[in-house]
Amino acid sequence: MTPFVNEPYADYKQPEVRAAAEAAMKKVRKQLGKDYSLIIAGKRLKTASKLTSVNPSNSSEVVGTHSKADAALATKALESAVQFFPQWSQTPAADRIAMAHKAAAIIRERKMEFNAWLVIESGKTWAEAEGEVSEAIDFCDYYARQMHKMANPEPVVQLPGEKDEMVYIPLGVGVIIPPWNFPLAILAGMSVAALVAGNTIIIKPSSETPTIAAKFAEVLAAAGFPLKSFSLCVGSGAVIGDLLVEHPKTRFVSFTGSRPVGLRINELAAKPRKGQIWIKRVVAEMGGKDAIVVDHETDVDQAVDGVIASAFGYQGQKCSACSRAIVDKSIYNEFVEKLAAKAATLTIGDAAGFDNALGPVVSEGAQKSILNYIKIGKREGRIVAGGGKAPGNGYYLQPTIIADIPPSARLFQEEVFGPVLSVTKAKDFDHAIDLANATEFGLTGAVYTTNKEKIEKAKKHFFVGNLYINHKCTGAMVGAHPFGGFNMSGTDSKAGGPDYLLQFMQAKSIGEKIL
Ligand code: NAD
Predict the structure, then answer these.
(1) What is the pTM of this model?
(2) Where are the alpha helices (DSSP H) in 38-180?
(3) CA distance 21 to 3
(4) Please, is 386 exposed, middle or buried when counting C-beta atoms within 10 Å of its C-beta (0-12, 13-18, 19+)?
(5) pLDDT tens, 171-190?
(6) 322 an active-site residue?
(7) Cα(227)–Cα(459) distance, rounded to whole angstroms?
(8) Pairing between strand 400-403 and 420-426?
(9) Ligand 1 residue neighbourhood (C-beta within 6 Å)
(10) For 367-383, what is each residue's pLDDT tens digit?
(11) CA distance 55 to 62
(12) Is 285 a catalytic residue?
């Protein structure tokens, strides 16, 4: 097996890359408004009830129309997955591994097209889309390699007169519930990990990004995953989400999304239902209130760049986004001034525009909720950049910075999930780390300092699943930065890490007496 390497990124400053992107966008635009089917029990089908997704950069543009599953169809999908599990789980691991690699190869081949779908349905800039599609490829390739290891486990101790082994087997039927903010990478990661391990799955995509999910379902089918090994079940969380989670034959739920929905799923899944013979396994990766600590012993300009990239990349709509900068008092004023000046230079507009640093937020609902937080922030602190909507026929917001936010403030404690950054003054480095830890979340964090002792302190005491030193707090790379958070940020499943497939498998010990 060749060693895993991350998928390289295209550079959108290059004219030939821009030309390829424009050509891909032209092709994608020709498909706008298409009607997409569900995939249930091995069949593609349409229903009368529809969901429409729009381009957040231009809300009058329809991206796709999607049939919605009702409770009866979701139940059918689940029952079919139960029926197909014995056959799929017995498929040789080598075949499933080959399919996962093939899925990576197909996405790689269609990379620009996928980038364009992400730009148009999720409002990612080209560079952000490139990062995400590369990550989706990485997940498929990485989990294929991990499955090879799971299929060839470390030998156990051999007792005299026995052949002893421990093998990993799949769990059963899983429900895959991804968020809209990484509509391809997280969907692909959770789905391919579950499938390559030998489980059958029901995919319930986010209602904001169903077209990307439909395109990914095409990839799974083209890679050879049988249509009965996965269902594509578009529909509302309330109508089919609860049902799928509660069903007694559901063996596991793989969820990535907000804290309230994750906790609800965890609670619903914990209650055994009539006919259920297992404890459901729930992997729930949830929100963040990620902080960057800026010490006085640092290059302030470098720290400003790191905070700006972490706070405003994809309009702050990453679970890993920096939403709190915690800054040593001796450089606080200089830092805030430089930060505000930098934010004012960021261009906002259509995500398809190569030179725009920020596109729109994902929906009107998101825009309203973020504006409400800005209103709260105006009471809790001092606006030093942005503070409202930006012009355009989409859901545009200015990158907003609110200084002097106290630790008790809602802006310090609650996930806003938009381009809003709070800045808080710390007495010294220890105080800054205490402040960074003073929320219920624990997903990502970063520290900017050149002091070796302080770096060691941060490594010991900054309680987050993903810590970065002198590095932005976003952009985890598959294989290098296994991803998952502590506390209310989730179950720390470490996506893109060497243990991830364990979430989708159980170990069976076999002690055989040698006759
Ligand atoms: P969300 O919780 O609103 O939705 C996530 C998914 O859950 C969607 O597919 C949604 O349709 C589904 N859902 C909603 N109600 C449901 C129900 N009752 N039963 C089953 N499914 C239901 O989150 P979102 O707005 O899509 O995503 C943003 C959130 O995700 C943020 O909080 C962000 O921090 C988090 N996130 C976390 C990570 C991570 O790795 N920790 C990664 C990306 C995003």
Answers:
(1) 0.98
(2) 71-89, 93-109, 111-122, 126-151
(3) 30
(4) buried
(5) 999 999 999 999 999 999 99
(6) no
(7) 46
(8) parallel
(9) 177-182, 186, 204, 206-207, 237-238, 241-242, 245, 256-258, 261, 264-265, 285-288, 319, 415, 417, 443, 483, 485, 489-490
(10) 999 999 999 999 999 99
(11) 6
(12) yes
